[in-house]
Amino acid sequence: MSEYITTKEGRNLQLPSDEEDAAINAGIAADPDTYELTNEEFTQSRPIGRPKSDHTKMLLSVRYSPEVVNFFKATGKGWQTRMNAVLQDYVASHR
């Protein structure tokens, strides 16, 4: 019978059977370019991804005219950050 665990995000994940786990471990052992981390190595590892920001942003859905979106998108990568900066300047000048 398959065993499941639930992540903190609420997703249900199926754990491998004993046979599947043995095959996975055999594959790790057979690969000269990798090895299974020890518990000590695993606890010393750093989390991957972007560090948490001190200034979190609010996620919301907004509708803008195509001209506005196309203008900022045409400025390339980081267009949302530039759009946010323009809005922040507006807020600062209208206080």
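(the above was protein one; protein two follows)
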Amino acid sequence: MDVLTVRLDNNISKKIDIILKEFNYSTKTDFVREAIRTKIIELEEQRTKREALKNLEKYFGSIKTGKTMKENNILIKQAGEEFVKEFTKKHDLE
């Protein structure tokens, strides 16, 4: 296990102390570990969405649909979100 030293300003540290009590974290370390895990999951989801959109644009971006670019982008975004939702469910990433 790697050791990481983090300096926090007093305001953030006090907010964490309040959260520790309210949500029954045993230590600041436990809270920080969970926060990091949550952020990693969030960023991985963003990466997956970005890659899905890129692939959708690659394969469907040049199709003539009779819609405006804005309408096409909305449809591509919706399709990407649906893909991510199904991918997440399929691979138990929730």
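Reviewer note on protein two: The longest helix spans residues 28-60.
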